[in-house]
Design goal:
By secondary structure, this protein is an alpha+beta fold. It has helices at about 5-40, 50-85, 95, 100-105, 115-125, and strands spanning about 130-135, 145-155, 160-165, 180-185, 190, 210, 220-225, 235-240, 250-255, 260. Strands 1, 2, 3, 4, 5, 6, 7, 8, 9 and 10 form a 10-stranded antiparallel beta sheet that branches. It starts with a helix and ends in a 7-residue tail after the last strand.
Length: about 270
Amino acid sequence: MSTPDIAGILDKSKELDQLRKDQEDVLVEINKMHKKLQATPEVVEKPGDSSLSKLKNLYAHAKELSENEVNVSNSLLVQLDALLPSGPQGQPRRRIEGEPKRKRMKSDSEIPRIPPALRNQLEACASLKGEQVAARVTPEDADKDEWFVVKVIHFDKDAREFEVLDEEPGDDEEGSGQRKYKLPMSAIIPFPKRNEPSPTLDFPTGRHVLAVYPGTTALYKATVVNGHRKRKTDDYLLEFDDDEEDGSLPQRTVPFHKVVALPEGHRQ
């Protein structure tokens, strides 16, 4: 094993350490931005505000760092494999028989490292098992989005996919009984918790939201009418799109835990 080979491995190790430190720094900035948007969600509606663009850039940077980390780790593995002795050809059969078991045990360097931000997101998704959530059950390329209240049955961390149950399908749907869906993470929005209103977003008057239409398990686009509520647990007064009666939109009361932010690019 030559000195240049060792030097190359050490350089790669330093590069890997720096990438991980950079990822931690980006995660700190992402968390700061999340806290800012939670405390003052209305800031994104101000002219010239670039909060969402900054957040998008931070996530893009985090993704780039993560991909670079994988590339450097793979490069290190190749360098180490080239330096490790392959072992003499005439080893006893008994030693060879033990090899498969050891090969199945992955070392820490062989296990893909998940960035902290993504790991936290996956844990949060897994914790939704048994909870009711808002789910987009239509494909990405559908003409319009359909959102229903469903129950989370399981979250597959490897596939990053939810299995959910529509407990009350509509009368106009094919078949009868409950219906299951497998949906990506992007198709799920958790509802605010009734007993934990603190982290809940407080939508101001005029904000477009996605809310459960009273008496149904379907969610539709609506506009907040009474944004100045005294408490976060107070009901919202909403006007739903396409809900016209006698030439005007009726104002309907919806519990705060059935109202979520309107997804970007929503089609109705």
